[in-house]
Amino acid sequence: MYINQLFPQMILILALLFRWESGLLGNVPLKDFIQIAEKSGLILDITTFVVETVLVQHPDIPYIKMNLSAALLDNSDWFNGLLEMLHKDYASEVLRLSF
Description:
This protein is of the alpha+beta class. It has four helices and four strands; from the N terminus they run H-E-E-H-H-E-H-E.
């Protein structure tokens, strides 16, 4: 059961904190996680996965706030793909994004 099913009409904003617990490195601090993801070229795929997962699991959330990696700021194709995905597949008419 998803949280929006437990508390319909109550959730206005969803904040998602993404963490990495490595078997080798233990709990990886967020700043290190972001740097590793950027250097490995995986930041785009990870961010896309997180956004899609949030939208699938919480389709009724009207407001989503995202902190994005600076590596994505120059990628207009990623932003266009995000907007297309939101419009086509998941977003309601009232969904608002904040970056």
